[in-house]
Amino acid sequence: MSGDWSGLATARSLLFVPGNRPERFAKAAESGADDIVLDIEDAVAPDAKPEARKNIGTWLANGGSGVVRINDQGTPWYEDDLAMLADWPCAVMVPKVTAPDQVWEVLDRLPRGSCVLPLIETAAAVLGARTICSVPGTLRAVFGNADLGRELGVDHADPSAMAAARSMVVLASAAAHLPPPVDGVTTALTDEKKVTIDSEHAVGLGFGGKLCLHPRQVPVVNAAFSPSTEDVRWAEEVVAAAGDGSVAALDGNVVGKPIVDRARRILLQVRA
């Protein structure tokens, strides 16, 4: 693996694949997802974690790519997970992060060129999200709606229940000059409408991507986090109206620099 994480920084869809199912790694990588998450944590039973670790190490050593979700610092598997990742630059999703020092510790243990995607999935993490996101080497925040919902005693599938928490992660990411964060999972695997609703809600709050639990969710998520035809047309009109300047009038509205910058950002998404 290389230390170039530019694609991961702009990924719309991150598809989970259990580390103890190596026959699924290549299929996940070819699913159309922008990147995959090789999981050693929640998707893998305790007695299968050594096998998962071995499978992931083999995949990465042979040139495969993917983010690795390790077990958290308070588990008996944490040390072995980090030891497996000691030989090459890697992208690591760290669960149950509550403070910046947890991110620092992982980065200190990984080879140079590695990066961390902290899972913001506790109340403490949401309240401290800006300091967590500000650690150098943090590539992008990930919102963990399932664990946060459990802690708060609310339905993780209810978009309105954690809208404030989601917005705090978006704001923290922007304040730390990170790419827009990745939203959490939709556990309704076969409900395309629900995936669409959740994705559009996340887009509206300022997220840049979403975790996927099944390949069938990937095209829905990719479409939702890509600029629509209408968005692109509007952006092209704004940029054309602004010309070499930053202030113009379009359809009776003043188009200032912030609006022009947003339009240019949309067009960059299309060109990427």
From TrEMBL:
Residues 12-215 form the HpcH/HpaI aldolase/citrate lyase domain. GO terms for molecular function: lyase activity; magnesium ion binding. It holds the Pfam family HpcH_HpaI. Keywords: Lyase, Magnesium, Metal-binding. The keyword Plastid does not apply. InterPro entries: Aldolase/citrate-lyase_domain, Citrate_lyase_beta/mcl1/mcl2, Pyrv/PenolPyrv_kinase-like_dom, Pyrv_kinase-like_dom_sf. Its cofactor is Mg(2+). GO terms for biological process: oxaloacetate metabolic process. Mg(2+) binds at residues 121, 147. It comes from the Bacteria. Substrate binds at residues 69, 121. This is CoA ester lyase. It comes from Jiangella aurantiaca.
